[in-house]
User: What shape does this take?
Amino acid sequence: MNTEKKTILVTGGMGYIGSHTTVALIEQGFDVVIVDNLSNSSSFILERIQQISGVLPKFYQVDCCDKAALEKVFIQENSIVASIHFAALKAVGESVEKPMLYYKNNLVSLMNIIELQLQYEIPKLVFSSSCTVYGEPDFLPVTEKSEIKPATSPYGNTKQIGEEIILDISRNSPLQAIALRYFNPVGAHASALIGELPNGTPNNLVPYITQTAIGKQPYLRVFGNDYNTPDGTCIRDYIHVVDVAAAHVAALNRLLIIPERPQFEFFNIGTGNGNTVLEVIHAFENATGVKLPYQIYPRRDGDIEKVYANTDLSNNVLGWKSNLNIEQMMASAWAWEQKLSTIK
Ligand code: NAD
Ligand code: UD1
Assistant: This one.
């Protein structure tokens, strides 16, 4: 049996999903090398990863858009067998304000990674995509065969273009890739040592909920209660970040172990269940015992009415399934928020 550890390059490994995935990879016996420019994360996350996993991963503070600096990582770390590329900017509103920043950061970093992986003959890549590629779907639940709708933001477009870049390159090179289309990742690690670190006032629902519960925000604004859904609020497929992390291990194992695969595959990463905003609020209250003040506000521009995943493909082909329910997502997000308030 080959007991040598395989090394995985994790770009954006200090971020929300990347840090949870790093922990999952270490737990599954991989070595991890993190590349992150800390544009949306903090260096203390590295020690937290060590506290949870018992291993301090190698960390390079490098911008993936700086190809020469990124190449040094490839030169120094010659045992890398694959990469998971999380590094990207992800704020939808900011991407509308600063489209060039988003196109450059998200696409140049992807092209650099692919080019170096091909140059160093380690062409296996897992790419962070998003359910945003489906836009407002015509049919629910959305399968991987559902139509890709025109992107509604430069951020969303970087995910669509990113998938297209990978598809085109994989047709004409040894590149082998899996794109994971996450639905709405929420929650935090059971230790409450790592979690989401929103930059300024959060735009996303769950960090806004936990900040309201802890008193950083006066109340939650529920954007619209006149949608065509059971209680009038929007429906999303919220998925625990720990389950999302496990999906990356499954995707990586598929790339490393299964020889007969299409060069490029993509999978929905969700639970398969949709929850309304009001259901999420009630789940938070049930899971934590904390009452959440909220007010109904007008609809938020650009919001999709309802979207949730068909997960047959990821369940059957990746052999991955989500395990954690909405109450567990809320309880862990709350534990993280409480711990965060003690260090900030
Ligand atoms: P995050 O911001 O917490 O993590 C991204 C990390 O990448 C950060 O640590 C940041 O410092 C780093 N980074 C950004 N640009 C970089 C660059 N040029 N070079 C090096 N490091 C860079 O975000 P996240 O929520 O963990 O998201 C990870 C990936 O998943 C992103 O690609 C995001 O677009 C995608 N995604 C996230 C969600 C979500 O809801 N969180 C949903 C769908 C897709
Ligand atoms: C948003 C992005 C998506 C991105 C994802 C994760 C848009 C249109 N989509 O998804 O591309 O991948 O974040 O970064 O921005 N809500 C409230 N009050 C709040 C916040 C949210 O009612 O304070 C509601 C929203 O209207 C929505 C739901 O909660 O119905 C989820 O919102 P959010 O967490 O921002 O995620 P998405 O909009 O699904």
About this structure: The longest helix spans residues 99-119. The domain at 7-186+240-269+309-323 is CATH 3.40.50.720 (Rossmann fold).
